From TrEMBL:
It comes from Hungatella hathewayi. It comes from the Bacteria. This is EAL domain-containing protein. Residues 414-547, 876-1000 form the GGDEF domain. PANTHER family: BIOFILM ARCHITECTURE MAINTENANCE PROTEIN MBAA, DIGUANYLATE CYCLASE DGCP. Pfam families: EAL (PF00563), GGDEF (PF00990). The lineage of its organism: Bacteria, Bacillati, Bacillota, Clostridia, Lachnospirales.
């Protein structure tokens, strides 16, 4: 500050405030005017501090730029002047300064007496003051510097033209000039004080900030002649202000997207600001408030809200001591990612960042908490995808390598084993059933491997048909070999589809650590060597590196043991002749206490009944394949009561006994002591009988719910199933008493967070007993409303599980009796859950049988069934789309199957969104079919067009589509064939513009065709058409012929069908068309008369989407009218859908060509085609002409066709006329044109005379 004490008539800056009038600085001189410490002024309102000093309000307002007041203390009078200063820079906010000046209006004699003393004080103050001070004479515009300090632009003591020099001097930054000019204008206007903030450039190149203040000294005559100028260097203060503003802006920017933000005093371990998230006080939520200990808050917050797996790292990273060390090591921030409950009680991923700043000698932290849930989920998903094989869900090769190396490195030479499993004959599976079926086999193998090995084992897919198992902390090498036997046995299957079948076995190579190595690469080489040895030894076996082969006998028939192991009942298979046990499922083995290998060569009566001879009640002789025999039995050996179901089944090619035993409790019979218990057990047994004998699951469960409702005298019983993936619950079954309305439809898609009390109770595996629903009204209002809506005032409910997770519950609303026997619900829930589990397993198998695993679409098997049933829908409109993904195989080869799978999934998504009501099938790797029933043609084509655009833009090489639509479906297979034809035609366009070789494209054939055309082997022949009345030629038909050197001339019948099959016919059709235009052009140039020429086009060429473009392109090369060329299309085009024919006719007409219908009557006369397309000519097939003379029916038909053509104003051409008798009859019928050998055979175009 400029002075250490107040001098008479000398201004002293005593207060500095910001633009918001908050005090930032108070001079220590002010202590004499205040009743409290000067430090207490900081942060207070300026007006309050002025009142405390002067005891009166300010005359004028600081925000207007100026104000002052006079006040007295004792015998002294003072003047307070308030000035709003603006630097003129946009970045710097204005500030308010308060200047205190002691009035010099005491008696003159006192002034004179003290004048000398004051002058000395003034000189001493100048010598000690760091400010630059001068006298400014306003009238002269001259300044006299006081003391030794000088202005940067005024080295001398006297400065003339002071205001002009200051404004013009280059030392003043241009941005400060407006403020400087305003200061001098204020002085000239008579203001007693004027200030400016100036940015000054020093001679050494540095820059400083000065606060320049002029205070006018009034003379005795009242005129303003002299002002005292003070330049105070405030560079440091200005930098602090700018830093403060920058920090504030930065902080505000951070707060925008933060869940919460607050400030902490790290050195004093205090939170000095409220923590608000979503209008909720987060400190109060853990029983704390502002100024609480920061470490106390961390501990409580972590215990209540932080995920248990993340608490340690959160507490460690956010600890004050850790933060202080980070700051001392030069770090300006600390952050931590963790999972925490937010204000809505949702567990989300969060990021807490603490910016560390030293302020006032204290280390402070500005804390920002952000929601990174979406970002973190994407990161974790990308990490998971990078480690998981997409087909099997197992670890991929890279992840296996990383995990195994980590275990080997961290744990040293522990006993462990590496197994490499390779599927035998897998290529045969792919070749027999296709790659999609092969993928199913691999997925099934992965499923079994996960089931066989515990969670500690690493199970992965190395690639192709190779799998890897790494077992750590093994009990011994024999245990591993035993596991290998189980794997080899469990993975043996026969894949069968239709009449084809192929046996799938596997070979296994094993290496042990540390015996064979302590690093993955060493173990892998040894295990792979053992695997190759197993393969060379006949496959279907396992081998330990360096040891002998251990053979596993391959199965000969499909083994469904893995499915039986999924059941919760005891299931066993035994020989009906000698009672030998062939198989016991997992539950049976656990009940008996036996291992998988223990039952081999044992008798069923020994292992299951504890007998030495066959059971006297054995019913083997009564068993049949068609149905179960159901009976009840108390097993004295197992001491349990069972409901038993026996049946004759096929097992490995022979009839065997299969028994399913349902456990209904320990010695239930004979233990009843009360009527209630007896009634309960009766209901239990009746429920089990119902489940096992019901025709279908729904009727069985409905009957059981009725039994439960009546047992408890309730009004409604029901089953709620949980869909954890989607977060919803669904009422799947219910039974209501008469007069009680059903609630099933209204209890669908129940959000789990809407029933937290119920959900959490069952998650804890507890029963739910609510005696009075009203008790939930205030504690769980959402569930209260949930129960009240269905008129429940009390309820019983017990959960059931799927594997280990709660998957649903069975409940009774308003039970009135037997409320102490909830055990009944427990037992029934267990059995119902088992049935539901079997149903879900069946549904899954049924779904997989009819659906594609990757896309979820219906598969080829479903399509075959669909074709057989579609005939029922005949008569309805039907649109079919066939689709083939372009370049999928190349995509798989270049970027891996995962990229190809992504493309398939994207194509599936687009198809589903385009045709949500359509039936969509994936027939094979890249082939799809969409069937849309009862859709108008215009809407269908619009959807097809939009889908095609999206498919082309969202896939690497696009998708080839073929579409057909009929108003009335008659033959689905024909319609499908036409769609496939169109798709293949469009596929050719893709191949034509691509270098790829595909199954529908023959580059060698095309190369040969182009060579033959260039060599002139394909030649143009013409056959004239005659007017039968005059015998003159009025048009010709262009015909192609093929003749290679040394070979006979070949007609089109020899090569057209082959070119159509190879999809190359378009090249010949367009070549012949151009030859015709070239011929007509030559005739015109030679001055010969032009006659119309007709050209044959294949049906496949007519289907091409670029037909119009090709026709126009060829015609534009020649100066020949298009109506001189007629396009002949075969009658077989009538098989096409009407809309397709209309489109073809429209394209030809638009191009200017005439149209001829060829071979009319060859197979059958499709009369409707004549009403759909406009023809210029109809050609009778020669089959109608050759028997014309002998066959009267032919004569009637031909006469009618000719008459029809006459009425339609269409020229009728008779082909194949060879005799005069035929000619005479045709002339008699009025035929207008004759073509055939009678007049002329086809001749070479070069020899044809016009």
């Amino acid at each position: 500050m400029p002075q250490n004490s107040l001098q008479p008539d000398l201004p002293l800056i005593v207060i500095v405030a910001d633009s918001a009038q908050k005090v930032r600085y108070v001079h220590e001189e002010m202590q004499k005017f205040l009743d409290y410490p000067v430090s207490g002024c900081s942060g207070r309102d300026l007006s309050e501090v002025i009142w405390d000093i002067a005891g009166q309000r300010l005359n004028g307002t600081p925000d207007k730029g100026y104000g002052e007041l006079l006040f007295s203390r004792g015998t002294e009078e003072y003047r307070l002047t308030v000035q709003l200063l603006d630097s003129g820079r946009e970045q710097a906010a204005p500030e308010i300064t308060v200047i205190l000046q002691k009035n010099g209006d005491t008696e003159r004699r006192n002034l004179e007496q003290e004048l000398s003393l004051n002058l000395q004080r003034y000189k001493i103050a100048l010598s000690r003051c760091s400010n630059i001070i001068w006298e400014y004479h306003l009238d002269e515009d001259c300044a006299y510097l006081q003391g030794d300090r000088r202005l940067p632009f005024a080295p001398s003591g006297k400065i003339t033209d002071f205001s002009k020099k200051m404004v013009k001097d280059k030392c003043v930054d241009p941005e400060s000039l407006p403020a400087l000019r305003q200061m001098f204008l204020d002085l000239k206007a008579g203001n007693p004080m004027a200030c400016a903030l100036l940015h000054i450039r020093r001679n050494d190149g540095g820059q400083r900030w000065f606060r320049v203040t002029h205070t006018v000294l009034r003379s005795g005559d009242g005129a303003d002649h002299i002002a005292i100028g003070v330049a105070e260097d405030i560079s440091r203060e200005q930098k602090e202000q700018e830093r403060y503003q920058q920090e504030e802006k930065y902080r505000q920017a951070l707060v925008v997207d933060a869940l919460a933000s607050y400030e902490i005093d790290i050195d004093n371990d205090r939170i000095i600001e409220k923590i608000i998230e979503n209008n909720k006080d987060m400190l109060a939520s853990v029983g704390l408030s502002v100024n609480c200990r920061y470490t106390q808050f961390l501990k409580r917050w972590a215990e209540k809200n932080i995920h248990t797996e993340d608490r340690f790292i959160f507490l460690q990273e956010m600890n004050p001591d850790v933060l202080r060390r980070r700051f001392e090591n030069g770090h300006q921030e600390a952050e931590c990612e963790y999972r925490s409950l937010n204000a809505n009680n949702e567990m989300i991923w969060c990021n807490t960042t603490i910016y560390l700043i030293e302020s006032g000698g204290h280390l402070m932290g500005f804390v920002y908490v952000k929601n990174i849930e979406e970002k973190k989920r994407k990161e974790l998903e990308l990490l998971r995808q990078s480690r998981i094989d997409p087909l099997t869900g197992l670890l991929n090769r890279a992840a296996c390598l990383q995990e195994i190396n980590y275990l080997l490195k961290e744990n040293g030479p522990e006993e462990s084993a590496l197994l490499i499993i390779d599927v035998d004959n897998f290529k045969m599976v792919n070749d027999t059933f296709g790659h999609m079926y092969g993928d199913k086999v691999l997925a099934g193998i992965a499923y079994k491997l996960r089931d066989i090995f515990d969670e500690d084992a690493i199970v992965g897919r190395l690639g192709g048909d190779e799998f890897l198992i790494f077992m750590f902390h093994i009990p011994g090498e024999d245990a591993v070999c035993h596991k290998a036997q189980i794997v080899a046995r469990e993975l043996q299957t026969i894949q069968q589809e239709g009449e084809n079948q192929v046996v799938v076995t596997n070979s296994i190579g094993i290496a042990f650590s540390p015996r064979h190595g302590c690093r993955f690469q060493e173990l892998y080489v040894k295990a792979d060597t053992a695997l190759r040895y197993a393969k060379q030894s006949g496959k279907s076996c396992y081998s330990v590196f360096g040891d002998k082969i251990s053979r596993v006998v391959p199965m000969q028939y499909v083994n469904r043991e893995w499915l039986l192991d999924e059941l919760e009942e005891i299931v066993y298979i035994s020989d009906i002749q000698d009672y030998t046990l062939l198989y016991v499922n997992r539950v049976g083995r656990e009940q008996i206490g036996m291992k998988l290998e223990d039952f081999e060569k044992k008798k069923c009566y020994q292992m299951l009944q504890g007998r030495n001879t066959p059971c006297p009640f054995c019913n083997n002789a009564k068993l049949v394949k068609e149905s179960f025999i159901t009976w009840e039995y108390e097993n004295p050996y197992l001491k349990k009561y069972f409901i038993v179901k026996d049946k004759l089944v096929e097992w490995n090619g022979r009839p065997v006994r299969m028994e399913i035993a349902v456990d209904v409790g320990n010695h239930l019979i004979g233990d009843y002591t009360t009527t209630a218990k007896y009634h309960m057990e009766t209901v239990m047994l009746e429920s089990l009988r119902t489940l096992n004998s019901a025709e279908d699951l729904e009727s069985g469960i409905t009957r059981i719910l009725e039994l439960i409702t009546r047992f408890y005298d309730g009004c409604r019983s029901y089953i709620i199933e949980i869909d954890r993936e989607r977060g919803y619950a669904h009422n799947t079954y219910e039974w209501c008493r008469e007069g009680i309305p059903s609630q099933k439809d209204s209890l669908q898609n129940i959000a789990l967070d809407a029933i937290p009390y119920i959900f959490e109770t069952f998650n804890r595996k507890q029963h739910l007993i609510i005696s009075r629903v009203e008790e939930l009204k205030y504690t769980y209002p959402s569930e209260y409303q949930f129960l009240k809506r269905r008129r429940a005032h009390s309820l019983f409910a017990v959960p059931f599980e799927d594997e280990t997770a709660f998957s649903g519950y069975i409940g009774v609303d308003n039970p009135n009796i037997n409320q102490d026997t909830i055990r009944l619900l427990d037992t029934i829930a267990y059995n119902i859950a088992n049935e539901i589990k079997k149903r879900r397993l069946y549904e899954r198998l049924e779904f997989e049988a009819g659906h594609d695993t990757l896309s979820g679409l219906l598969n080829r098997s479903s399509f075959v069934r669909y074709q057989s049933e579609i005939e029922k829908k005949c008569g309805a409109s039907c649109g079919i789309i066939t689709a083939d993904i372009n370049g999928l195989k190349q995509l798989n080869q270049d970027f891996g199957h995962s990229r190809g799978d992504e493309t398939i999934i994207e194509v599936t998504r687009i198809m589903r969104s385009s045709f949500p009501e359509g039936d969509i099938f994936r027939l094979s790797g890249d082939e799809f079919v969409i069937v849309a029933m009862n859709m108008a043609y215009e809407n269908f084509m619009k959807l097809v067009k939009n889908m095609g655009i999206e498919l082309d833009s969202r896939t690497p090489s696009g998708v080839s589509l073929g579409t057909t639509w009929v108003e009335h479906l008659t033959d689905f297979d024909v319609l499908l064939h036409h769609a496939e034809e169109l798709m293949l035609v469009n596929k050719q366009i893709y191949y034509k513009n691509s270098d790829e070789v595909r199954k529908h494209y023959s580059p060698e054939g095309l190369k040969l065709l182009v060579h033959d055309v260039e060599q002139g082997y394909y030649r143009l022949y013409l056959q004239p058409k005659f007017d039968p009345e005059t015998g003159t030629v009025h048009s010709v038909e262009a015909l192609s012929r093929y003749q290679a050197p040394g070979r006979d001339l070949q007609s089109p019948v020899k090569f057209v069908s082959l070119l159509e099959k190879m999809k190359l016919i378009r090249y010949l059709d367009f070549y012949m068309l151009e030859e015709v235009f070239r011929l007509l052009s030559r005739w015109k140039a030679e001055g010969k008369p032009l006659i119309p020429v007709s050209v044959n086009f294949s049906r496949i060429t007519l289907l091409e989407s670029d037909l119009f473009q090709m026709l126009t392109e060829i015609q534009s090369k020649y100066d020949v009218p298009c109506d001189m060329v007629m396009i002949e299309i075969t009658e077989r085009i009538g098989d096409m859908e009407h809309k397709v024919m209309e489109s073809i006719g429209s394209k030809l007409r638009k191009a200017g060509f005439r149209i001829s219908l060829d071979d009319f009557g060859a197979d059958y006369a499709n009369m409707s085609i004549l009403s759909i397309m406009h023809f210029d000519e109809v050609k009778l097939d020669k089959s109608l002409v050759e028997n014309l003379v002998e066959n009267e029916k032919n004569q009637i038909i031909v006469r009618c066709i000719i008459e029809m053509c006459r009425r339609l104003h269409v020229d009728c051409v008779a082909e194949g006329v060879e005799t005069k008798e035929q000619l005479d009859l045709l002339k008699e019928y009025g035929c207008t044109t004759i073509q055939g050998f009678y007049y002329s055979k086809p001749v070479d175009a070069g020899q044809f005379l016009v």
